[in-house]
Amino acid sequence: MRLQIEENGLYLVFEIEADQPVWLLHMGARPMSREPKEDQKFLYTMLEVQTTGESRLEHFGLGHSGTLPGNRMNYVSHTDQVNEMGRVVEIYTKDEVTGLSGRMVYQFYTGIPVIRCRLFLKNEGSEEIGLEAVSSYVQAGLGSEEQEEISLLIPHNSWQEEIQWKETPVNQLGYHIISDSGISSKRIQIRNIGSWSSGEYLPLACLRNSSRGIMQFWQIEHNGAWNWELQERAGQLALVINGPDEINHHWWKSLKPGEEFETVPAAVGCVEGGVDETFAALTKYRRRIRRKNQDNEKLPIIFNDYMNCLWADPTTRKELPIIDAAAAAGCEYYCIDAGWYTDENWWYKVGEWQPSDIRFPNGLSEVTDYIKAKGMTPGIWLEIEVMGTQCDLTGKADSGWFFQRHGKAALDRDRYQLDFRNEEVREYTRGVVDRLIREYGIGYFKIDYNINAGIGTEYHSDSPGDGLLEHNRAYLRWLDGIFTDYPDLVIENCSSGGMRMDYAMLSRYSIQSTSDQTDYLKYASIAANAPSALAPEQAAIWSYPLSDSTREQTIFNCVNSCLLRIHQSGHMGALAADKREIVKEELGYYKRIRKDIKEALPFWPLGLAKDGDGWMCLGLKTKEKGYLAVWRLKEGEACRLPLVYWRGEEVDVKVAFPADDERCKLSWDSEEGVLEVVLPQEGMARIIQLN
Questions:
Q1: Banded pLDDT at 104 (limits 50, 70, 90)
Q2: Per-residue pLDDT for 508 more than 90?
Q3: SS3 for 662?
Q4: Which of 128, 290, 387, 429 has its CA 20 to 30 A from that of 608?
Q5: CB pairs under 8 A, 24+ apart, for 355-362?
Q6: CA–CA separation, 684 vs 681, rounded Å?
Q7: What is the pLDDT of residues 516-550, one digit of tens each?
């Protein structure tokens, strides 16, 4: 029997028969056109589950394929209903040998070609079951065209070099068709180990099929360890997505009779088109799953005193003139960054969160009250999940407060990882947040996270990876509790910049630090690509004009953040008057267009940016308007931008920032849908508006 689904531009075909595994024969942007061979349907399994003591079907190497009892989990029933998000299909399976039952959930979102997938396992047997690997999503049959026509887009991520996409044909990544009947032991694998969910790669990727003109994409929504891999199955690509597993992440879970385990969520989708269509779909989806909040509706401008400014050395004397300058420019939040809690080394003393009497001789309230008197909301930096080795509380804290491995508290960069499974830890950290809100009127927290907790903790867990996973989930519940009690509180997700850029966090946090990049020229590619990783209104970009900057350098700095979320910084008071006016002009323009940013969809006339490109361009479009951030870093003074969305239209095109600009020249070719932009020198940038 076939279960065929057509929903939101997606087509799915399941084969479901009693006493047989469920096979996902097709998922794509078009109806199924190839019928799998009967003797190869076992390669189209809907799920993969490997447990301790079980074999596998064939010699598949280290890949998550041919798992048992996964391939014994036979169809029981299914439901097809509608909830507040859209259609939801749940498929129930069971392995009669072990008593392990499965509930595979496919949540659709009305009008969006994206499905959110999770697998729930329950031990309905009489013996404990050791879980070694459990899939969140499996799909075979992704394409059998010429290998050079299928390419993989991988978002590389690194400190100060975030969101850098590389597109490579799969045959150059080691994928070669060996057999038309089995599974290769060779995989294309991307994984994350530890608590930086995007420490090396963002938890998403895209697969482009050039011959068919379609793009498939996936996003793993977890703030810890994850894995995805592409395999060859019967001459075609197959995708397996999972959270932590034993081979990659030291994760093993004992599922006792009656207990249930839930995988990390994975979102998958497919579109006709390419990059623009893919990230338009993901942007709509990200907005749909996100916590409703005023910050993403109003997009207030934040000043933060760290970057190219105080560098974690705040004092009352230093802060007051910067607060004056930030208020005069039009900022609406003012965040005091690191160092406020100690007069010694700020790195090692994190954890107690009491203001320094030396830095603030009249108390921290003198500064926060001054911020409020200037019409801004005060914010403050916290690294709430860790404790420094020189923090006085480390001697008082019970050993169960910290991650442990091999009988010792685990350290990274002279900091201990607090274990949020521990009720005392949750109560203590929540008390810090409550106190700062109550005593200082804090309305904005920058929550930073500058360590990687590694494979996890052995303390009260089945494995280090099990301890990490449960800690990750406990931290999310802790966040949920804060937002329940303080729904208008703004919390920024920062992890040495963008080292935890994932939608487990971003479905809760309203704003994300994208980078700690200190060079505004190098920041351009990060800013240009930011909407591929997260919704534009959540992407905080530093703008930090230097006190000795030229006019064009100041404008470039402002353009970096103008179509996203502005993190203003730099020694504003030390800027020359004409440069301060440039910043003030940009913030005024931003306030006029931010109502469009929160609804706009991104596009890239020149494709996704690469560090080293001569020209870069990020576009945002609404039904009536378009906005372009254009950067020239080198190469020729003219660039032709294909704007297919406005081809054949008479469009009013103008330089919107800076407004009185005679250096940038624009020429619109309506018939071809091409805008020519002339910037006469390297290191120039402009905001262009299309009406």
A1: very high
A2: yes
A3: coil
A4: 290
A5: 359/314, 359/315, 359/316, 360/315, 360/316, 361/316, 362/316
A6: 6
A7: 999 999 999 999 999 999 999 999 999 999 999 99
Overall pTM surpassing 0.70 (yes/no):
yes
- Tell the burial category of 274 from Cβ atoms under 10 Å away from its Cβ (0-12, 13-18, 19+): middle
User: Residues with Cβ < 8 Å from 603, sequence gap 6 or more?
Assistant: 276, 280, 619, 620, 621, 645
Q: Which two tokens stand for residue 78?
A: 């299914």
Torsion of CA 517, 519, 525, 531, to 10 degrees: 50
**374 residue type, one letter:** K
Q: Residue 178 — φ and ψ, nearest 5°?
A: -105, -40
Residue 490 to residue 501: CA distance in whole angstroms: 17
Q: Residues 434-467: pLDDT tens digits?
A: 999 999 999 999 999 999 999 999 999 999 999 9
The amino acid that residue 619 corresponds to is G
Q: What are phi and psi of 10, to 5 degrees?
A: -110, 145
- The three-class DSSP label of residue 480 is helix
Say which residue the tokens 């589950």 belong to.
49
Compute, in degrees rounded to 10, the torsion defined by CA atoms 419, 420, 421, 423.
110
Cβ burial of 158 (10 Å; 0-12, 13-18, 19+) is middle
**What pLDDT shows up at residue 61?**
75
Show the tokens assigned to 328: 């005069």
